[in-house]
Amino acid sequence: MRGVSGNRAGRLLRRAGFYLGLVMVLGVFIFPFVWMVLNSFKTHDRITEYPPVFWFEPTLGNYRNVFQQAQFFEYTWNSFIVSFGAVGMGMVLGLPAAYAIARYGHRGFAFGVLACRMIPGIAFLVPWFIVFRMMGLLDSYVGLILAHLVITVPLIVWIMIGFFEEVPIELEEAARIDGCSRAGVFLRIALPLVRPGLVSAGILALIFSWNSFLFPLILAGVNTKTLPVLVYSFMTFDYLDLGGIYAASALITLPVVLMVLAVQRQFIRGLTIGGVKG
Amino acid sequence: MTARARHAQGGAWRSPAPGLGRWVDRHISWFFILPAGLFLAAVVVFPVLYTGVLSFYRWSGSATAAATWVGLSNYADVFAIDPGFRNALWVTAYFTGVSVLIEVILGVGLAQMLNREFIGKGLARTLLILPIAGTPVAFALIWRNMYNPSYGIFLWFAELLHLPPQRWIADVVTVIPSLILFDVWQWTPLIMLITLAGLVSLPSDLYEAAQIDGASPWQVFWRITLPLVRPTIVAAAMLRLMDSLKTFDQIYVTTQGGPGIASQTLNLYVFDQAFQYLNFGYASALLVVLFFVILAGNLLLVTMRRGQA
Question: Given CB 3.0 to 4.6 Å as the disulfide criterion, which of A225, B28, B30, B107 pairs with A182?
Fold first, then answer.
């Protein structure tokens, strides 16, 4: 009897220990987010106080400052155009390619697409900068969307290969027998069936396009700057507004958090494309 | 004229358009990859080749001054005399090697810990994705501020742990460890979530057998779990290694390669050569070298995966 209750106490203790550990681990990984949100409600002077303050009178001033800058909405708009443009174009280019790879092979091509993901952005940037300048594509939406396609196309292709492979081939064969062309099978049978995959691939590509900093840093100008470049420029201004930086960082991260909630599982799958099956 | 040729000719003569349509449809897969293929040729293959050509020139990128042919002299500079390149190579190896190693060890450990049923598992997974998904520039700005040598919260953490005060990213010695800590924070969850997916799919009968044989949890981990998930871990580590070589935003925003050049990785060095000093020819030569580094890494990845299969 004593043995059993001892065992039970031990189990409870181990469980408590596990949850304590869990909270600590999550706390470490979440802390910068918490700190970001806290500091976004502090004044500049409060942020630079030492030792750091955890309890304070919150202010909305930082957010008000960010919103009052006309540029903020302009750059948000730019970010939307570029991300959605790159995802939309990425779908047009990527979906047929993903279907062809899933159904007809073309493995070599698939790895060519994957290689884009392995090459550092800076490697594209030098030749792009020169060519874009010649063609007048610097500081244009077209140029930025072209650049961001290098991010979205590999993601979309590699995620969608998996979804197209899961479409039952019998359905496609039946449509063929009924006289549907191969292109028709893709458009009328396969595409409607992979709609859930389409959503997660799109959201994933959107996140990475939204986050992109290096390409717009060089290729965008006053007219097309995106949010990451704006947030970065907050730091390099002569006056340094820490509250503004924290508020803008929180604002730029918010849509990403919402999108992550929507795609959870596909997220890891998307990041490990071609590397790990997961 | 053979029967088949006659037939083909006849078919073409009767109705050329449906014949063409059928030909297109039979080879439709090529038409499906054509748009993406053309895009890749224009935006990826061409720039890579262009970089190769440019690496034999000296050019300030000016639209009026022409580029001068200098042969292999850019490459000679890269390998023979450039201390900036050597520094960048060392910084890259240090940053990448140590951060990936720590991420793998921590990630596998945490995956082992979380591989059980518990309340809030889905929430935990979501929270752990956030460091991976969030905007790198925003994080970098926050970490930069947390590392501030006069009031940053890391000063306070060090004080709590009774560590001597550090200057974090403001000191040549601690700048790379500080960046590694940032990278470990951001990417350990990735290794962990991949490993966790691998752990979940392991067969349970082996564990039952081990339990019957009275194996200790430690033995089970080393003798059963680790060998079984090793392919997943190796693949995750290689993936992380390749991605780590691409790191730019995080370092550029926090330190811009400084103090001095103490945290200048190859990416940042090329960026500076091209867009700070406008040495486009020299930057191109550096890029070609970087390509070969990455190509070698990828070949290693492919061979290792073949070896496992």
Answer: B28
Both structure tokens of B168: 């974090």
Instruction: Note whether A130 contacts B153, CB cutoff 8 Å.
Output: no
Nearest Cα of chain B lies from the Cα of A120 at a distance, in angstroms, of 5
All residue ranges of chain A with pLDDT < 70 are 1-6, 70, 236-239, 273-278
Bond before B259 cis per omega within 30 degrees? yes
Complex ipTM, two decimals?
0.88
Cβ count near A163 (within 10 Å): 21
Residue with tokens 């409870």: A12
Domain B74-308, CATH 1.10.3720.10 — does that match?
Answer: yes
Show me where the domains of chain B are located: 16-44, 74-308
Q: Mind telling me how many Å the CA of B1 is from chain A's nearest CA? A: 31
Q: How confident is the model at residue B101 (pLDDT cuts 50, 70, 90)?
A: very high
Contact (Cβ atoms closer than 8 angstroms) between residue A60 and residue A41: yes
The secondary structure of residue B277, as a DSSP letter, is: S
The pLDDT of residue B298 is 73
Instruction: Report which DSSP code applies to A64.
Output: H
Q: How far apart are CA A91 and CA A157, in angstroms?
A: 8
Torsion sign (Cα): A132, A135, A141, A146? negative
DSSP B134: S
- Which element (helix H / strand E) includes B252? helix B249-254
CA angle, B251 as apex, A49 and B264 as ends, to 5°?
Answer: 120
Helix (H, G, I), strand (E, B) or coil at A225: coil
